[in-house]
Records
---
Amino acid sequence: MNQLPVNMDHEDFQDILILGPECRERFLITEEIPELRDHDMHMGGVSWLRGRYHVGRKDPDIHTLLFTLGGGGQVLLPGRSEVITPGSVTLLPAHQPFLFELGAAEQEWRMAWLLLDDSEVWSALRGQPADVFQHDQVWAISPMMDALYHQIKTPRRRRMVGLISEILTDVLLRESGYSRLEMTIRQLYAQLEDQLHHPWSQARLAERVHCSVPHLNRVCKKLYGQGPMSRLADLRLQRAGELLASSNWQVSQIAQRVGYADAFNFSHWFRGRTGMSPTQFRRYSRSRSLQEKEQVSLK
């Protein structure tokens, strides 16, 4: 029997990965499945484990989820340990230490796993306690990830990644405190940051989350205190400011990047929101950045 220590403090955890010769894993990586990035999934895999298997992280910058189909293991968390059994989800949020391993040397552990970026898409997981809980969707998501491995070279992989994300949302509703629609809308706006150049309308946004325009308005005001198009405008303004401050793109290029085909209209809109033209904002941002660097160098 592998014996995990008990009552470990945060400083006792270490980054460790021990994978014995009897363990087998199939990896789902963004280089082969770029659609994973669309849902802020860092990577995933399907594992058949036996013998030596230990994984520990001291301060992970990603969320880790394990979906156990058979056998099991155990996970050590600060001040406690949990047994991992079939049909369970093991949730290990970012920036919380953990150590997990097989329950016994002779035991097998069949599971799928996902690593999620600590981004706005999965921001509902921030600050959640690590947990092991039973969920029926384990029996759906694990085979789906195994099937995705065999569909890497086919157009079907995009639909399969989307379905995995949808099933994952079902699983995490238990932890997030949001309704399904609220979590879907939060994920949509996180994804829109890379799609600001599209000509979005309320109708198109509502269609993406499968609800009516009035319902979308109500939920957006609950989540953000503003309507869906105002929220989109804030994202466009934020991105435009970042590009003006950090890139050498022309104003017309930045305008197109955030959804304005005409640089004049973009400049008029930008001045109305910030009180400065894009060129003035660029000079101001770079001057302030230079001053901050000089202050740091003087310390």
---
Amino acid sequence: ALFKERLGALCFSYVNMAWLGFPFAIAIFGPQISSAMVALYIGGSIFGNIWAVTAVSDAPQSMRTIVQKVVQSPPCVALILAGLCRLVGIQNIHDPHIFELIYSAAKIGMSFTGMCVLGMWLRHTKVHVQDLKRSAAILGLKVICGVVLCTAAYFYLPIANMQQSIGVMFLLFCLPPAANIVALETHYQGTGVSAKYIASGTIMSCILIALYALIIHTTPLLSWM
């Protein structure tokens, strides 16, 4: 409703949890926050890929096509494989060395491929002052949403250890657009317009997160975060 451009809406709602979210969260809140970030990352990745199916496609798509693309998206495939592995009891294997090697190879391959795709588009992308202003406006709207939603969650959701989690929940609204968006756009549409949004959004988010970390660590009232 707020964005005429669906790709802009995707950049607003699908944030960079892996390459920036994890390091920033651990740096600000410590390694004990890792389990919460893993859960948020899985949910965010599935959501982002579902929304990306329609957001990065110009032509209207049938429900059957959307469902087919969603099921074939990497996060959904990974979740299905994880469920199957759980059912057959792979977690009980005494020597998981071979699976650790497969996981390490997949992780390195995913990161390398994703950064290569983003780097190829950024090579032809220029960030102007107008792009920074646009990203600042989007980030401001995200922060407002974060304040409203986190306040509502803090007072009305019966979640254990909410005081320890609310800080990292708000951090999500400070993160830039997910770098994976440009890979999804390349896959579904063959273009890289989102590279400009990602670059300018990352610049503005890094400034905001630095201020957020400063406030967290210098304000006594927020020390419980």
---
Amino acid sequence: MEREIIIKKRDAVATRASILAAAHQRFLRESYDGVGLRDIAGDAKVDVALISRYFGGKEGLFREVLADETRPRLFRDAQDIADLPAFLAQIVVEDEGDDRQQRMEMFIIMLRSASSPRAGQIIRDLVQLDVLGPLTELIGGEQGELRANMLLAILTGVGVLRTIMMVDGFSGDAAEVAECADRFRGLFEAALTC
């Protein structure tokens, strides 16, 4: 009996992962409104009812696809406001390989689906929860939310240049990377003080 339960759990984990992978690929190619649950279920080779069982439906599945489990607390970890510009600059200059590819795909998924009222709300909720809320709380003060938005605009702009447009003028030697990190630190400091 115990062996049977373990096998079912392994199947559930594999099935859930298969659904997520299929949904990720569908949302990467098509907008939220253009993707059907039957399409995802077909790609994952599962019954469509399993999507509702594991994710509660299309909205829950979309939310799960966008959730970044590799860095779930990046902006929620306690930081000192004085260290924030250097912390953000380090994120920019250390953006490499698989991490960059994953963020590029997430950005494309968000862009494709942002015009959908449901998907747009999910995207806004996740950005608020994972980035803007924690940054606003850390920055504090009257202009905390505005400054957090400015920081996000800088990070997003740099991310688009590096991941989507493949413009990357600071991936050279250690001295060049350090110089870029210092310049980005100054840019983030300016965003926090204006």
---
Amino acid sequence: MAIPLVVGVDGSEGSLEAVDWAADEAAWHGVLLQLLCAAAGEREASAVISAASARAGKRAPAVPLSSEVSHEDAASALIDIGRNAFALVLGCRGSGDLDDMLLGSVGLAVAARADCPVVVVRGTVEHRDARFGNVVVGVEDGEGSGTAVDFALREAHVRQCRLVAVHAWSALSGAYTTPQAPSWFLEAHRRPPAQVLDDALRRPAAQYRDASVSRLLIEKPARPALLEAASTADLLVVGARRRLGHPGLQLGLINHALLHHAPCPVAVVPQR
């Protein structure tokens, strides 16, 4: 049985925007699109599934569809189905201006605990409809970004667009540094910023030799650096580490901020 791309639907405008995004994504990757409606009565669930199916069929007529109604709470249902999913796609919550900016408790729980990539569809229609031609991936020093880079480069490949790999770094106050020649303190504790990007991209870029890849080194904290890069992105991809001895992922303050405030869809990719 094919591994599906799963989108959570609840009848809200945010979830219908997620259906649009997921239909495009399923078409690009040639996978089944599965609609999941949780925590609703039978009649309500049937109406939600029907509206979402019509929306997906209009957006991507060639994409095969399936649907499921779960009587678990929404977060548990999504996490369960995500154990055998290509990715989980969710919309932002709410109907007011402030609510539309924020991610609800279900979205945060799923992003923190799912075994597969989780995409939160947010931002303007220009960002959601892939009009910029850029996929941005955040690259950190260490092992946490490897799977995210793989995911991002595959996304750029199927979309036939550019991958922008961003690494944000900070030097000690008063230290003279460059991305290629950091201070002695940075040299002793971590790799030069340019090397971080080179090492992260070397293996996946070899798989997609025709990919257009840009490297962006920004000397500032990661949160504003990634939000700035995402302003002209169709998708922002970040990694999440497994927590030793605990279920779920370590989202961290940066990922929380991006899930709440990024100007474009955000994919949280668990480290393998």
